[in-house]
């Protein structure tokens, strides 16, 4: 049995592939490399294909003994989803439907979905439990919301079992230095902090300094990508052993403001970080903070890397290393 990882050459996908390989799974990476990077592939079999192309998907499923699917491949930028919602609805929904169709046609019943805290919208309760009302406020979040509803229908009608993992803010890099974050363009705070220090980004911009938070900047729950990846392996094991669909938050129950993250990065690097404050991005909420109780209970998940200092240190080492390679 092989595990198909759609988007396995991306940031979170590649870290999860590393965890799967370390647990002895056979991995089949399916990626079109529009945003994924070939240099982030450290093992497994690779099929270059596009989820929007049903023929390439059918061929992959027909030629391989696939037992379960992990789905990371989607468009993820909140601001872009406001500017171009058509692109997000077409790509995120149709690509997932194509993947689910290929699974059903091949009698593959186990699916791990890369969802998002964006399905909650503006939280009414902090930390956010999985039972919180779902009210996404941007097109990106709505695509994740719609897919979760589709998955519930597919479970009821076809017996497809899934675990939908609702991410909070993935950050950091592989502690062994083999993998890290590399987006084009880069929109996440922590890599942009370090890219500004390394001269790769002219100015660090803070989106919004007028949120109803103690220092006016957005507050987020940052989770180390290796802990995030390990949760996917635990979710897969859980689903294979106990085929029951679940929605599970992946966060730390701790949160930091943008300015707090910048201050800690200054301590770690010993450098002053210069930034400018700009307007909020459409669809950004003031606070996102996860309840991790269900992940601990259902998956026996332990956070081993997700303190802020470790997140920043591993990210800094990765970006510093990549700058040396490029130069």
What descriptive keywords fit this protein?
327 residues, two-stranded parallel ribbon, Rossmann fold, alpha/beta, 41% helix, UDP-galactose 4-epimerase, domain 1, 10 helices
Give your account of this protein's structure.
By secondary structure, this protein is an alpha/beta fold. The protein has two domains: 198 residues, 3-Layer(aba) Sandwich (Rossmann fold); 92 residues, UDP-galactose 4-epimerase, domain 1 (Alpha-Beta Complex), CATH 3.90.25.10. A seven-stranded parallel beta sheet has the order 3-2-1-4-5-6-11, sandwiched between helices. Helix 1 packs across helix 7. The longest helix has 21 residues. The model has no long low-confidence stretch (mean pLDDT 95).
Instruction: Indicate the radius of gyration in whole angstroms.
Output: 19 Å
Q: Low-confidence parts lasting 5 or more residues at pLDDT below 50?
A: none
Distance between the termini: 42 Å
Main structural class: alpha/beta
Based on the coordinates given, report the CATH architecture of the largest domain. 3-Layer(aba) Sandwich
The CATH class of the largest domain turns out to be Alpha Beta
Largest sheet: 7 strands, parallel
Globally, the shape reads globular
Helical stretch count? 10
CATH superfamily of the largest domain: NAD(P)-binding Rossmann-like Domain
Q: In total, how many beta strands?
A: 13
User: What share of the residues does DSSP label as strand, in percent?
Assistant: 15-25%
